[in-house]
Amino acid sequence: xxxxxxxxxxxxxxxxxxxxxxxxxxxxxxxxxxxxxxxxxxxxxxxxxxxxxxxxxxxxxxxxxxxxxxxxxxxxxxxxxxxxxxxxxxxxxxxxxxxxxxxxxxxxxxxxxxxxxxxxxxxxxxxxxxxxxxxxxxxxxxxxxxxxxxxxxxxxxxxxxxxxxxxxxxxxxxxxxxxxxxxxxxxxxxxxxxxxxxxxxxxxxxxxxxxxxxxxxxxxxxxxxxxxxxxxxxxxxxxxxxxxxxxxxxxxxxxxxxxxxxxxxxxxxxxxxxxxxxxxxxxxxxxxx
Length: 289
Description:
Radius of gyration: 19 Å
Helix content: 10-25%
Strand content: 15-25%
Oligomer: single chain
CATH topology of the largest domain: Glucose Permease (Domain IIA)
Order of helices and strands: HHHHEEEEEHHEEEEEEEEEE
């Protein structure tokens, strides 16, 4: 029951805000306190899973090519981003770190901000992890300068996690201003893939398009709530993130001289297999041996 209620955490939060802000109109003091309870309950439910904890990972292809560092990975903690909101329980952030470049660091002293084009990830292709149908695609939001310095990160907390989050709530847009430019694919069997923070103007697909595994959907950008250009990827069980639950995933990758099928983590660089290497065209559920 609690998991079902948790799917409507955002709706409860919005209803609570509405009741509190309209007290002068309805004039019922009790409704104001009902609103307060709904707000508190909605916030608490952000940390309650709305999906089945025992669901097996869905095996797909890697959405990127080359050498990347996994950040906020479900291999390290669940929920990976500290919340179950927007179906991102098992989300992962991927930062491109080519061979020969310095080790990735989440914060740097200087410069305080940099153009997104100065980062290796910016403009990298984002690939369909399986055959599917586009159910949502948007690409008009700007790519902002980086916020990976300490002052920039503090600004990110205010502008991104407060203003963008609140604007998304008010517009019932399912986190549109948090995820930035994005694509959502229907992979079949109730599995939907989300690709967020894409480069402005790079999205190559539109709603209703059919894509094949490995097709280019767009490019990595720095739109939405981001500190630097990277790809945010996750699977969920509904096309609309407001009531979606996260789904665990796995893909094949190479790290430390070994080829694995799972989720990279611990900020350990990994490399995706070459396009010629066999990989599932259709998502499949990983079964225990």
